[in-house]
Each structure stands twice: as C-alpha cells, then as structure tokens.
Amino acid sequence: METPGRRFRALMDKSCLPVPGAFNALVARAVARAGFPACYVSGAATTVCAGVPDIGLLTLDHFARIIREAADASGLPILADADTGFGEEEMVRRTVVEYSRAGAAALHIEDQVFPKRCGHLDGKTLIPIDQAVSKITWAAEAAKDLNNNFVICARTDARGVDGFDAAIDRARAYANAGADMIFPEGLTTEDEFARFAHAMTAAPKRPYLLANMTEFGKTPIIPLARFADMGYHCVIFPVSLLRIAMGAVTRALETLRQDGSVQALLADMQSRKDLYELIGYTPGTPWEYPVQ
Known about the structure:
Layout: H1 4-14, E1 17-20, H2 25-33, E2 39-41, H3 43-49, H4 60-74, E3 78-81, H5 89-102, E4 104-110, H6 129-146, E5 151-156, H7 164-176, E6 181-184, H8 190-200, E7 208-212, H9 224-230, E8 234-237, H10 240-259, H11 272-279
Parallel strand pairs: 1-8, 2-3, 3-4, 4-5, 5-6, 6-7, 7-8
C-alpha cells in the first residue's frame, strides 16, 4: 500500500526535492498545482498566522488540523514541523501518531529547550544530548509501530550554540537513535553544508539530509542544484510564500488606506476565475470533496 511516507522516501531517493512551505490549505493546493512534489508545514508560519510568535505556544491539535487541511487540499506528501515535540517522550510519541493520522509523511523535531525560538536567532539553548536521543528514540519507535514508512527527521540547533563539531556529534547520535533524516539548522556557509553532508556519510546508516533555505537568517541563499550536488535530499523554503504574501498585503493596505479604493490593486489580484480554477470549483456544479 502506498503511504505518504513511502511516497516521500521514493521522491527523495530519486532527486533533491524543493519543498515550499504552505501556511494554509489554499497555498498547499497552489504548491501542488505549480508542480512541486511535496509540501512543508512550517511551525513559524503556522504560529504567526495565528498571531503569535514562533516560541511553541500552539497546541498539537492546532498543528494537526493545519497538516490535515494541507494534505487534503494538495494531495502531496507533507513534511511538518513538530517544534520540540509538544512535551517529553510521551508527547513525542503522540505527536508522531497524530501527525501520521493527519496525513503527514514526515516530521522534524528539534533539540532546543522549551520555549524554543527560531533557529536563526541567537540565544538558543539545547536540551542535553541524552534527553534529545531519548526523544528521537521514542519518535522512531512510534513510527516503527505505525508501519507506514513515516519519516522521522531530527533537527539539531547545535551549530549556533556549541559549534559545528557539536552539530555533527549530535546528528550522528540522532541517526544512531533511529532518525531517518537529519536537519542541521543555522549553518552559515555553503562549505559548512558540504562538510556536514560529508560527515554524515560515516554514519552506520546514512540518513537523508534536509537543508533549510530560509531568508534573512544565518544561511546564505544557495540554489537547489548546489544542495543536490552536496548530497542533500530535500530543501525546505519554510516562510518564503508567507513573506511574499504579507509583503503584498502590507502594500495593498497602504494603497487602500491612501486611495480609499482597490482600483489600483486589481492587476495584482488573483481573479475570481483563477481562484475557482485553483480549488476546482465551477459555480452551479456539485463540488466533490477530494479523496486522497
């Protein structure tokens, strides 16, 4: 039986995947329509869309609802941010199960203390490595029990706290604990990404590698093809679409406030026709809810 996890693994086995972040179901549907093979649900985007900062304030149920809506709307394998796992080992296990039930193919869990902060900010603090290993072990066991090839990705924020070598040490420990994929957050140069990927080849079971191509952070803009050359299997663009959308929203509000009219904004709007085409709706015709 094909599952989201199996689809996601098969895609990564073929090529390095570009995975745009969707901040709601409509954007996830647009990601699919644009031809992308997978979709990402970002913790940062999910939280700011709820009007709160990315410090771990939202609940597991809130995240699961966004994942379910994105999966249903897009039909794509969903890689989802699980922050610090919403608690300790018992909650990590529940998170894996609930994300899978919501339709996710994979999740990543990080090794920061709660309350966490954006991976590209200074002042982060890590939980002890043995505690992080325990959480990854519980996540991997939960995925094994699901028996659907759900992907467990371990994110380490050690580069910005204890240095590059510490990030490698933690990544190897997480891979040994059962992580299928490793996410080195906050690397600062292309050379660091290359060195990190090379270091992971020495792991007993080489994990998949995820790169975060976020903007305005510690990582320079690196093309997808270069990440592929370095041995990465997927590249997330977590907040790119949200930033573009909110930039347009801010400019539109300024124009509306100044002009008292939307006339000057019409050319930049998605038309009613285009919106209906995106959601597959023809007025007057029954709309069938998608079955994935």
